[in-house]
Amino acid sequence: MCGITGIFTHTENAENYREALNKAISALHHRGPDNEGTYFHEHAALGQTRLSIIDTSPGSNQPFYSADKRYVLVYNGEFFNYKEHKEILQKQGISFRTSGDTEVLLQLYITKGEAFLENVNGFFTLAIFDTHEKTLFIARDRFGIKPLFYSTDKDKFIFASEMKAMLNYPISKAIDNSSLLQYLQLNYIPAPDTILESVKKFPVGHYCKIKVGEPVSFKPFCKNAYPATEPITVSSFEEAKKTYYNLLDDAVQKRLISDVPLGTFLSGGLDSSAVTALASIHKPDLMTFSIGYKDEPMFDESRYAEMVSKKLKTNHHAFMLDSDDLYNELFKVLDAIDEPFGDSSAIPMHILSRKTREHVTVALSGDGGDELMAGYNKHRAEYKLQHAGYYKTLTTTALPFLRMMPQSRNSKLGNIARQGIRFAEGAKMNAAERYWRWASIAKANEALELLAHKKGILETTNNIRKHELLKGINDDFNSLLFTDVQLVLQNDMLVKTDSMSMANSLEVRVPLMDYRLVNFLFSLPTEYKITADSQKRILREAVAHLLPEEILTRKKHGFEVPLLKWFKTGLRDKIETVWLNDTYIEEQGIFNPSAIKALKQQLFSNNPQESVARVWGLIVFQHWYKKHLQNL
User: Fold this and answer.
1) Which residues pair with 209 in a beta bridge?
2) Same domain, 594 and 533
3) What is the pTM of this model?
4) Number of Cβ atoms within 10 Å of the Cβ of 381
5) Which of 195, 252, 608 is nearest to 414 (CA)?
6) pLDDT digits (tens, 9 = 90+) for 323-364
7) Residue 540 pLDDT > 80, yes or no?
8) Parallel/antiparallel/unpaired status of strands 287-293 and 262-265
9) d(C-alpha 480, C-alpha 94), whole Å
10) Is the CB of residue 545 less than 8 Å from the CB of residue 281?
11) Domain boundary among 190, 220, 250
């Protein structure tokens, strides 16, 4: 696992960017503290920071050169089926200097060209410079598990694993107001856009080959999982369950390859418990890691993790936190955030990653299960709407009364009212608009009101971008899940996991995102995933024999933190005097001062509604803006 960065120039000598490249590498140090390397050519400069996982010897350091020095590779990720391909290449007479996956990856490219990407089971971003053809080949994995940013103009193409590295190159730092508007609705920025006009996210499952004097074009190297083009045919749920179990078991087993200590995250939820159960079969001495909240029983689920660990006989590490631990971590998280990202569960993820890194260098997680198998509350709500009945009538009838109740994520009753209102409002919309509403923390007009200018243009652009994100939703429930994979999983969950783990030099692997599993799930009917009384049905039943009954029957629990309590106590002064200070908001000129004041009033009222998440999103933006654009 690593950080990569580089530049390809069409006109001037890439050596001119040596200082910028070195600064970009320094910004990526946390992603790879074990080694740093650079390469310079007339048209290309490449850099890499290495976190040594497979073949930790210096022979696998990067940039990595082919035996004849024609090709130069920088690579971030893991290639889990590399041994199989290495054997095939050896039978063809190709010899290897190292025992790791990096050399196999480069040799596959030399042998097969861009077609080699279809053979890679893993996650990655990579760049390969051909010194003969003077071309740069760049690719990103199928689901965007590993990040890659780029900026291009007629003279150059710049790329890096993180936005903070991009900022060291000569690029425009102008804010993309349309991206900011989407951020204010979602608390993250959907690909391909970023917070800056000049920077984009490299498209997932695509590659490009950059040549001197030619425009950049991106090409897909894999087929979309939905609609399924090559489905695995199964005749019954029982057969599907067995197939899924075997695929998942192999996916987990492949991700246990490591030359450094390895463990699993174990929250006590179904996804991480399933991954841990299968990992423990192949690795009896498995270490597991979880966090719990000493003084926040509403958020604590540590007893479920302990329950699973006891049954599986893992070497469990439970990190029990109090509010002060979480509060103190908050500022480390703000410093680690690469571009504005307002999912507050990044705070416990940062703590879990930091403490886990004290014991292992690699951890397996359960990311992807909710999006692929309908595990969220919004999925259950959508299922109820599609199958109608009394619940829809009851909730819409109760809407006026629900609106009279205090709404908040921080109490059970307040959360019930909040969810009931969202359901009733969504019931009046079409499927695509409903999905967007339930994915958002703010309505479009609420987000727009926070901005100071360009409302007409912003509203039009926002609608165009939203249409692109939602255009695949239709009557098939799988279309909604696939949108979740492209929107929520790619831009929220995987970003959180990657950014918070790599901030602590920890590699996290996601077996539920093995492309064979994903393709198989999207070829199955809805009822194999969600029914009136079950979510993630196929996973639940596939691993039922491995886990305690209580884990199989418990409801989903979010990775929440007590933001509201902090906002009303320790953080209130900083909100009022630093982040959302009235004078600073006026001088900054980005936000509407009266709307910010109104949002603060709602936050500190007895009915905060979604203002907690919205204010956290603003805090993240302001901290990022001051640190990276104003250098304060």
Assistant:
1) 137
2) no
3) 0.94
4) 21
5) 608
6) 788 888 999 999 999 999 999 999 999 999 999 999 999 999
7) yes
8) parallel
9) 45
10) no
11) 220
Could you check whether the bond before residue 231 is cis, i.e. omega within 30 degrees of 0?
Answer: no
Coil, helix or strand at residue 364: strand
Token pair of 475 as six digits: 């009557």
φ, ψ of residue 428 in degrees (nearest 5): -90, 0
Phi/psi at 514 (nearest 5 deg)? -50, 130
Residues 500, 516: Cα–Cα separation, whole Å: 26
The CA radius of gyration of the chain, in Å to the nearest whole number, is 24
Q: Picking from 208-217, 270-279, 386-395, which range would have the lowest pLDDT averaged per residue?
A: 386-395
Nearest to 281 by CA among 259, 241, 311, 258: 311
CATH number of the domain to which 95 belongs: 3.60.20.10
Report the distance separating Cα 200 and Cα 591, nearest Å.
23
Q: How far apart are CA 158 and CA 200, in angstroms?
A: 11
Return the ∠ at Cα 386 (arms to 416 and 428), rounded to 5°: 65
Query: For residue 288, how far is the Cα from the chain centroid?
Result: 21
- Phi/psi for 292 (5° steps) reads -140, 165
In DSSP terms, which residues pair with 534 in a beta bridge? Answer: 531
CA–CA dist 205, 200 (Å, integer) = 15
Q: Domain range holding 247?
A: 237-373+478-553
Tokens encoding 556: 């989903």
Question: Could you tell me if 483 and 567 lie in one domain?
Answer: no
Task: Decide: 150 and 157 in contact? Cβ < 8 Å.
Answer: yes
Shared-domain flag, residues 167 and 260: no
Q: Which residues are catalytic?
A: 2
For residue 558, what pLDDT band results from cuts at 50, 70 and 90? low
Place of tokens 């000049």: 198
DSSP bridge pairs for 263: 287, 363
Claim to verify: residue 273 and residue 187 sit in the same structural domain:
no
Q: Please state whether the peptide bond connecting residue 400 to the residue before it is cis, i.e. omega within 30 degrees of 0.
A: no
H helices of 476-592, in order, are 477-484, 494-502, 515-521, 537-542, 549-553, 563-568, 572-574, 582-588
Q: Is 514 helix (H, G, I), strand (E, B) or coil?
A: coil
With bands split at pLDDT 50, 70 and 90, how would you rate the model's confidence at 278?
Answer: very high
Q: How confident is the model at residue 91 (pLDDT cuts 50, 70, 90)?
A: very high
List Cα–Cα distances, 311 to 245, 320, 350, 518, 550, in angstroms.
Answer: 19, 20, 27, 28, 12
How many structural domains does the chain have? 3
Helices (H), 427-558: 431-439, 444-449, 455-470, 477-484, 494-502, 515-521, 537-542, 549-553
274 in a structural domain: yes
Q: Which two tokens stand for residue 524?
A: 């199955």
Q: Is position 289 within any domain?
A: yes
Residue 393: inside a domain: no
Helices 323-336, 611-624: inter-axial angle, 10-degree rounding: 50
| Number of Cβ within a 10 Å radius of residue 472 | 17
Confidence of residue 428 (pLDDT cuts 50, 70, 90): confident
Question: Which CATH number do you get for residue 541?
Answer: 3.40.50.620
Q: How far apart are alpha carbons 429 and 437 in whole angstroms?
A: 9
Q: Tokens representing 119?
A: 């053979």
Between CA 263 and CA 16, with CA 27 as vertex, the angle to 5 degrees is: 135
The CA distances from residue 540 to 95, 241, 245, 272, 564, in Å, are 45, 10, 10, 12, 34
Q: Do the Cβ atoms of 500 and 351 come closer than 8 Å?
A: no
Phi, psi of 196, deg, nearest 5: -105, 140
What is each CA distance from 104 to 79, 94, 119, 130, 146, in whole angstroms?
Answer: 9, 10, 11, 17, 19
